Amino acid sequence: MSSTRAWRGSRWVTGLLGTLLAVLSGAAVWASWRQTDTVADVVASSAETDAYQQAAYLAAAEMALLQASFWDPDGAARRRIPEVNKQVDDAMARMVAVDDSPDRQRSRVLKQQHLNLGPDIAYYLQQIDRHDQAGARRTLKTVIEPSYSRITARLIEVQTERLAEATRNQAAARDFSRRLLYGSIVVFALGLAVLNLFGWSVRAHRRQMTALAAIDALTGLPNRVAFLAAAGMALTETPRGDADRADAAPPTVLLVNLDGFRAVNDQLGHGIGDRLLIESGRRLAGVVRDDDLVARLGADEFAVLLRGRSDSDEALAARLTTAFDEPFALDDFTVDLEISIGAATAQPGEQVTTLLQHADIALHTAKLDHTGFHRYTSAADDTAAARLSLLGDLRRALDDTGQLILHYQPQIDPADGAITGVEALARWQHPVKGMVSPGDFIPVVENTSLIHRFTDLVLSQALAQARIWHDSGYRLTVAVNISAHSLLDARFCDRVATLLEEAGVPGEMLCIEITESSVMRDPAVAIEALRRIRNLGVRASIDDYGTGYSSMSYLKLLPVNELKIDRSFVCDMATDASSHALVCSAVELGHNLGLTVVAEGVEDAATADALREVGCDLAQGYHFARPMDAEALTRLLRTEVSRQPA
């Protein structure tokens, strides 16, 4: 509000001085014509000198405050740093705005170098706030002070040049002014005042609005507004010519997403989450070149603008990924975080919004395929459209209970052939496309918030069917596959308890199957969730055992009831000695840990006999029965009962 009043006041004063200037201009037209060039030179050189001088002064003041904060973390210097940092940014912006020299790029580089220090300053202040004196000293001495020394030295060098130029212009103006009539001198003074005041008011207002709109307050990086502006400028400034020239290459945008950040933010709190974002921004900014731009677009999404082609986006993506190999040490927590990256290079005539949309499609593909990096191609549009269409149909299917159904595959005791349980497998009967393969829609739903509704629907149907079988005299354990997103959701255990109560099914009739990889995404949270599940009486199984990367120590700690040996080891165990040995080892390990061992993928009688010989507890596969609907499985249960001796 105060800046608005000041701007309006300056406009009023400018108008008054303009009126006086018009009255006197008739008597000094000739003098005004002669003064035009001289005044323009003086104004420009003086403004440039003042801008560089102000920037150098404020940069030195900011460095002094940073140094003072190290010795007095709670003092006034520490509190003034954000204000002075903004003043330096404003001075740098004014320096670029008024610099009309042929070598204007120097001022832009200085401004960008100071902006690049934002994450380092934020990190340094965090170290001070948490009293990490050793770390703060390293950051100050090895990063901040050298950078400020270079910036200040360059500012003083250019300021000296501008000062010499300003001195020459002022001397010429004084010499010429002495030869002018008194009226011309008055007109010149008023004109200079009007021009200076008007320029100052406009630039001050513009700088304030730009500063507020272009910087991310948390990380100190440019925000979405600034990134869009920079990307748009890069698109318009791309030179045309030899495509092999680095400076003729179109700009590339990399979208970077922090995988698992939401879980960290929810479980460790927003304070840790904010510090994680600051550190992530610092790491990203530390990898790119000075000519490239790193920005935070919002939440846990960052963007990198690559200008030119001196470095491939694949190579940069690899360096960005490597920057996150080292865990984040935040107070008493150590956080491992990975990133997904989507890249898109601008095509001729392409707009910024289209370029970002393409990079977003590539990012979504990288996350969906778990590849870490993906480059956009025109074919990705069709794939993305198909996935979006499938996702929309799936959302409607969740509201239509007739589309998503369950099939059940029996789990057999190899010793006597009795059915002791079933695995529930989701099937989608699309009203137009017919039966949709689980391999097509399960990966899509697992990467969206729909996974929670989908899991609830599958559990609800499975438990309702278990109750029907129980009332008919068939006490079967029903196994349901659970994704990592559901297992690590803090509300999952409560939803399971509610669904068990609504179905009237005891917990021991439900078994949740989880993969090793889902547990290893966050072992501590997963173990706690499994303990709560066990308190409900629900069984837990490690699915696809042998294909993941869990250690023996975690396997010992996991509160699970069974191991499910992956079909890749089971299918050829009757003919391959290595597979046979691995299955034997898994059975022995499971029994030693007090676990039930289930083998999946049993395709023939020889494999079933081999499992029986090694003492495997349960088996499932096409040799015994294919997945079938509930009615068919009920008929199979009746047939089994009728065959049993009276």
From the structure above, extract its key features.
single chain, 646 residues, alpha/beta, 9-stranded mixed beta sheet, 5-stranded mixed beta sheet, 23 helices, 16 strands, 14% strand
Kindly describe this structure.
The chain is built from 23 helices and 16 strands. It is of the alpha/beta class. The strands form three sheets. Strands 8, 9, 10, 11, 12, 13, 14, 15 and 16 form a nine-stranded mixed sheet that branches. Strands 2-3-1-6-7 form a five-stranded mixed sheet, with helices on both faces. Strand 4 and strand 5 (333-335) form a beta hairpin. Helix 3 packs across helix 6 (182-214), helix 4 runs antiparallel to helix 5 and helix 8 runs antiparallel to helix 9 (270-287). The longest helix has 45 residues, at 133-177. It starts with a helix and ends with a helix.
Quick recap:
This protein has 646 residues and is of the alpha/beta class.
Helices and strands, with pairings:
Layout: H1 2-25, H2 29-71, H3 76-98, H4 105-129, H5 133-177, H6 182-214, H7 224-237, E1 252-259, H8 261-268, H9 270-287, E2 293-298, E3 301-306, H10 313-323, E4 328-330, E5 333-335, E6 338-345, H11 352-369, E7 373-375, H12 379-398, E8 404-412, E9 419-430, E10 434-436, H13 438-446, H14 450-471, E11 477-481, H15 484-487, H16 492-503, E12 510-515, H17 516-521, H18 523-535, E13 539-545, H19 552-557, E14 562-565, H20 567-570, H21 577-592, E15 596-600, H22 605-614, E16 618-620, H23 630-643
Parallel strand pairs: 6-7, 9-11, 11-12, 12-13, 13-14, 14-15, 15-16
Antiparallel strand pairs: 1-3, 1-6, 2-3, 4-5, 8-9, 9-10
Helix pairs in contact: 1-6, 2-3, 2-5, 2-6, 3-4, 3-6, 4-5, 4-9, 8-9, 14-16
